[in-house]
Amino acid sequence: MSGRQFNDIASKDSTLTRLTAEAKELMKLDRAFQKLLPPLLAGTCRAVRIRDDELVIYTDTGIIAARLRMLAPGLLPQLAKQGFIAGKTRVKVDVRLARKPREKKLKISQNALDGMEEAASSVSNPLVSAALAKLIAHHRE
Length: 141
Known about the structure:
Layout: H1 3-11, H2 14-36, E1 45-51, E2 54-59, H3 62-81, E3 88-93, H4 110-121, H5 126-140
Parallel strand pairs: 2-3
Antiparallel strand pairs: 1-2
Helix pairs in contact: 1-2, 4-5
InterPro entries: DciA-like
Protein name: DUF721 domain-containing protein
């Protein structure tokens, strides 16, 4: 279903029109919130709503939640300037938001791994040799 078809259907139903407007406003809130976050935190959480003067944020890990609990109150004035007024924040952990593990982007050919294995056997430093063996084993999986 294309966006135009949905808009045509939604415009004929007052409930769908209201829900569509609310969804757009919530997406706008999340985009504004994401832009204010440091690059490493952006995308690890979602600003989901403002209700009863409270900005609710969901994330998938406790570590990020702790960081957001420290950082988010300082972002409220900047959000207020954009029309999203809240006096306090609540950060919740929801593991269902967990991201899928990324696929390996670095591929080392079997020939290269064989060459690395040969080179690792001739290295005199046992720490370097062990690190190379671990790297080789990881990429052979």
